[in-house]
Design a protein that fits this description.
This protein is mostly helical and 341 residues long. The protein is built from 15 helices and no strands. It has helices at 17-36, 38-44, 46-58, 66-95, 97-122, 129-158, 161-171, 175-192, 197-200, 202-225, 228-271, 275-281, 284-293, 296-317, 324-339. Helix 6 (129-158) packs antiparallel against helix 8 and helix 8 (175-192) packs antiparallel against helix 10.
Length: 341
């Protein structure tokens, strides 16, 4: 395979022009809340403790670079957050808060989060179904955290902080990642099948918007009618939907895990891997136990090799002729990872 000279990025890998531009107005606002409402900000970080382990488990099949995950979180928090605040505020002032919550918010929030998936695709980071769900989860988590900061601060002023915290952080911390996961699933399927994302993946965005609108609508309806049973039913349905999503993700993860381990002998022959690597990466339990036994400083190199092999496996699994340029990039990444000491 030929060596590919990577272009030196103008910004660190965890940043991009949209993220940096959005952080400039967003960061001071977060800093202001941290000073004026520190409890709200602290509680807003709680969903990280719940959602992060799940995303880390899902990411084990094809470990994504830490910088890419940070970029996805920042996209959700800064880019999607800023766009949504601006649009929803305008709609709220002109058409009312209920219209903003039920119509504007689901539409603009899911589109702006979905753009983060397109950006990951543009950076050649998203290359399969599980990747699409993983990146959707990171983006949705970033958005949820920044939104919780503002919701909890407002709830504290109105005397409903703990009720709001239980609803958003304890009962439904996966709401935004789950909504956006539909877009991620559709984008990932399109990529895996070698089809154009637009318009192939629009069905996922449509489901994301619809489920988001149904969730917001049930809460608005419950508040307007003063019938808490409506919110209770909505939460139960959300839990059922979440359980169905978990089962789907587990099946997808197992299928991708199987494809990866079965592809290792072929990858070893094509890229000249030593027998020891075939033994480790060709058996999932051996892979996990080997990684667990490594020192923390050695895991980064192990994960880079694993990630490169997983990307190569996904690349060769796609229908049609293998993209030689993409394969050369993956091969260069694999060689770099193997040469790292």
């Amino acid at each position: 395979m030929g060596e590919v000279e990577a272009k030196k990025p103008r910004l660190p890998a965890f940043l991009s022009v949209p993220v940096l531009a959005s952080l400039i107005p967003t960061a001071p606002g977060v800093g202001f809340l941290a000073v004026t409402a520190p409890l709200a900000v602290a509680l807003g970080l709680v969903p990280l403790l719940i959602v992060l382990p799940v995303l880390a488990w899902l990411d084990r099949i094809e470990p994504e670079p830490r910088s890419s995950k940070i970029h996805a979180v920042l996209w959700g928090a800064a880019v999607a957050g800023l766009i949504s605040v601006i649009v929803n505020s305008v709609v709220g002032l002109t058409a009312g808060e209920r219209v903003a919550a039920v119509v504007s918010a689901p539409f603009i929030e899911e589109i702006s989060k979905g753009l983060g998936l397109i950006w990951a695709l543009r950076r050649k980071e998203l290359d399969g179904v599980v990747d699409g769900i993983v990146y959707a989860g990171w983006i949705g988590l970033g958005f949820a955290v920044i939104e919780d900061f503002t919701y909890f601060a407002a709830a504290a002023d109105e005397g409903f902080l703990w009720q709001t915290f239980v609803l958003r952080a304890v009962l439904t911390p996966f709401a935004h990642p789950l909504f956006t996961a539909w877009t991620g699933l559709a984008v990932g399927l399109a990529v895996a099948k070698g089809k154009p994302v637009f318009p192939t993946a629009l069905w996922g965005l449509a489901i994301a918007i619809a489920t988001h609108a149904a969730w917001n609508g049930s809460l608005v309806w419950s508040d307007a009618t003063q019938e808490p049973i409506i919110a209770f039913v909505a939460i139960v349905l959300f839990v059922v939907l979440f359980a169905a999503a978990v089962l789907t993700v587990v099946r997808l993860r197992k299928a991708e895990q199987k494809r990866f381990t079965e592809a290792v002998p072929f990858l070893a022959h094509r890229y000249g891997l030593p027998p020891g690597d075939v033994e480790i990466f060709g058996n999932w339990r051996t892979l996990l136990s080997t990684r667990k036994g490594l020192a923390k400083s050695e895991r980064a190199r192990f994960d880079k090799i694993h990630s490169s092999l997983a990307r190569a496996a996904v690349l060769h699994y796609r229908p049609g002729e293998t993209d030689r340029v993409a394969e050369a990039v993956v091969y260069a990444q694999l060689q770099e990872a193997r040469s790292t000491t």
